[in-house]
C-alpha cells in the first residue's frame, strides 16, 4: 500500500497545477485512474480497496490539490455501470463522470414508492430504439444541476413487481423533464421532485438487461449505503461541482482549493472534533455526560473505521462481510442523532436560533458572536434525514434480518403476483 501512495504522491508532484481549469485537472486525474481508484482498471480506476482509495483522497487533501468530481456520478453511477454496463457504456458514461464532464442524479423514489421502492409506477414504453418515460420522482438530490439521471422505471406491468423494472441513463435537459426544488427545514433545497412527460431515453442507455433492473438497482443501493455509512473518507471532496450546469469546469482549479480550505463544501465532516473543540471553548467539557457522549461519538467513528479495515482484510482473502453497507448506514444514523443531541446541549439556548438565508446568517453570527452555532443548528435540523434517505433504518434492519441472518421474509403476494394486479397506494 505504501508503494501505491508513494506512486500517487509522485504523480501529484508532477501533474498538479492550480492554474489548470477544473476540466483540465479532472481530465488528468480521471484518465490516470486516480479520480475513482476503487473502480476496476477497465473503468478508469486502479482496482484499489476502499481503504486504499480513502488514503488516496487524503493524499490529495494533504497536497493541497483539488479533489475529484463529487456527487452521485462518482459515488453511485460509475461503480454501478462498471458492474453491469457494457464496455461501450463504461467508455461513454464513466469517462464523463471521472473527468467531471457530466453530473448525475438518482431517479429512484416516488411519492408512493419510497421504502417500498419496487412499487414504483413510472413507466417506460419502447418505441423503436427509444423508450418513452412518464411518471414522477421525488427526493432527487442534485437534480437541478444534473446532466444525466439513473432512472428505474417499470417496463413490464404483467410481471411481479421486482421482475418488471429496468434501469436506464436518461438526459435531464430534454423537453418533458420538469425539475422542481424542495426546500428543507434547514433552509437549503438539495432535493427536487421531477416530473417526466413523454421524456425519452434509448436502448443503448439501458444498463443491464431489460426487466432485470432490480438487480442493478440493488448494486446502486449497496454502493449508496457503503458510501453513506460510517468509516468512509472524503477528505478531498471537491468544492467544484461537475457537469455543464454549475459552470465550474472553465474556472481555475486552484480557486476551488482555496474555497474548500475556507469552509466551502465542507458539509458536516469532522463534526466530532468540532464538537470537542466547542465543548472546550464553552466550558461544557466539564459536564461528565457531555464528555461521555463525545466519547460515544468518537467510539462509533472508530468502529466504522475498523469495520472498513476488517472488510479490506476479508476481501484480500476472497471473503466478504455480509450487511456491511447496511450496518454502516445504521451507524451513520446513530452518529447524526448523537451529534444533534450533544451539539445542542453544548450550545444551550443558542440552539433555539437559526437563520436560513445568507444575509440573515451573517446578521445572526454578528449578534451572537458564535458563528459555529449555525453549523450545530443546521446539523440538528438535518439529523432527521439520514435515517430516511438511502433506505430507512427500518429497511436496513429488514435487509440484515432477511439476507444476512436468514430470517423468513415478510409474507405477501408481491413476489408472484403481476404488478398490475397488486393493490396500489393511494
Detailed description of the structure:
This protein has helices at 2-15, 22-31, 50-63, 72-84, 87-98, 213-228, 253-261, 271-282, 288-316, 324-347, 358-368, 372-382, 393-404; strands at 104-107, 123-127, 130-137, 148-154, 165-171, 177-182, 191-202. The chain has 426 residues and is an alpha+beta fold. Among the domains are: 104-218, Beta Barrel (Butyryl-CoA Dehydrogenase, subunit A, domain 2); 267-391, no CATH class. The chain has a four-stranded antiparallel sheet with strand order 2-3-7-6, with no helix packed on it. Strands 1-4-5 form a three-stranded mixed sheet. Helix 6 packs parallel to helix 10 (324-347). The longest helix has 29 residues, at 288-316. It is globular and about 65 Å long. Mean pLDDT is 90; it is low at 230-236 and 259-267.
Approximate helicity band: 40-55%
Count of individual beta strands: 7
* Poorly predicted runs of 5 or more residues: 230-236, 259-267
The number of distinct helices, counting runs of at least 4 residues, comes to 13
SS class = alpha+beta
What is the general shape? globular
Across the major sheet, the strand order is 2-3-7-6
Distance between the termini: 54 Å
Q: Which oligomeric state applies?
A: single chain
